[in-house]
TrEMBL record:
<dbReference type="InterPro" id="IPR016473">
    <property type="entry name" value="dCMP_deaminase"/>
</dbReference>
<dbReference type="GO" id="GO:0005737">
    <property type="term" value="C:cytoplasm"/>
</dbReference>
<protein>
    <submittedName>
        <fullName>Deoxycytidylate deaminase</fullName>
        <ecNumber>3.5.4.12</ecNumber>
    </submittedName>
</protein>
<dbReference type="InterPro" id="IPR002125">
    <property type="entry name" value="CMP_dCMP_dom"/>
</dbReference>
<dbReference type="Pfam" id="PF00383">
    <property type="entry name" value="dCMP_cyt_deam_1"/>
</dbReference>
<dbReference type="InterPro" id="IPR015517">
    <property type="entry name" value="dCMP_deaminase-rel"/>
</dbReference>
<feature type="domain" description="CMP/dCMP-type deaminase">
    <location>
        <begin position="10"/>
        <end position="147"/>
    </location>
</feature>
<feature type="binding site">
    <location>
        <position position="108"/>
    </location>
    <ligand>
        <name>Zn(2+)</name>
    </ligand>
</feature>
<dbReference type="GO" id="GO:0006220">
    <property type="term" value="P:pyrimidine nucleotide metabolic process"/>
</dbReference>
<keyword id="KW-0545">Nucleotide biosynthesis</keyword>
<feature type="active site" description="Proton donor">
    <location>
        <position position="81"/>
    </location>
</feature>
<feature type="binding site">
    <location>
        <position position="79"/>
    </location>
    <ligand>
        <name>Zn(2+)</name>
    </ligand>
</feature>
<keyword id="KW-0479">Metal-binding</keyword>
<dbReference type="InterPro" id="IPR035105">
    <property type="entry name" value="Deoxycytidylate_deaminase_dom"/>
</dbReference>
<dbReference type="GO" id="GO:0009165">
    <property type="term" value="P:nucleotide biosynthetic process"/>
</dbReference>
<dbReference type="GO" id="GO:0004132">
    <property type="term" value="F:dCMP deaminase activity"/>
</dbReference>
<feature type="binding site">
    <location>
        <position position="105"/>
    </location>
    <ligand>
        <name>Zn(2+)</name>
    </ligand>
</feature>
């Protein structure tokens, strides 16, 4: 009789892996961000990545980071966390958690708090010193939403598609 596999991926590796895979759908040339919302009993509820809203063409709207504000992506792009929240069609997200490849900004944290998500598991914190993320942490702390940094196992997950 065969024994069960021992090298299966953990829940954290699974959900962060799904979030990062979703991020690969992003057309943003600089930061590809992915999110995966998970129920308290470890069911995937929704997924999102950063991109322009429906009807706003990836080939027409700007991907620039600098220049005239109206010609940069920042006014137009929907962040992965918000997309994951808006993509959910099942009712309440109360008590769920969100895996995200980059720490949420202030705007996404407002949506996270208001939607009832209770925990954030993030990977990169590359904008941790910016006002948007400092404000984000302030609101999450006040609202009692927990956040923890994903501890990378270092395992490379290889899939052939
Ligand atoms: N938590 C976050 C933070 C940022 N994003 C998106 C917004 C942009 O598409 C990109 C950041 O661009 P950068 O300033 O690094 O060139 O990432 C997100 O989806 N979630
Ligand atoms: Zn955001």
């Amino acid at each position: 009789m065969s024994e069960k596999r021992q090298d299966y991926i953990s829940w954290d590796e699974y959900f962060m892996g799904v979030a990062k895979l979703a991020g690969l759908r992003s057309k943003d040339p600089n930061s590809q961000v992915g999110s995966c919302i998970v129920s308290p009993d470890n069911k995937i509820l929704s997924i999102g990545y950063n991109g322009f809203p429906r009807g706003c063409s990836d080939d027409v709207f700007p991907w620039s980071r600098e220049g005239d504000e109206l010609d940069t992506k920042y006014f137009y792009v929907t962040h992965s966390e918000l997309n994951a929240i808006l993509n959910y069609r099942g009712g309440s997200l109360e008590g769920s958690k969100i895996y995200v490849s980059l720490f949420p900004c202030n705007e996404c944290s407002k949506a996270i708090i208001q939607s009832g998500i209770r925990e954030i598991i993030y990977d990169s914190d590359k904008y941790g010193d910016t006002p948007a993320v400092i404000a984000s942490r302030k609101m999450l702390d006040a609202a009692g939403v927990h956040y923890r940094r994903y501890i990378r196992s270092g395992r490379e997950l290889k899939i052939t598609v």
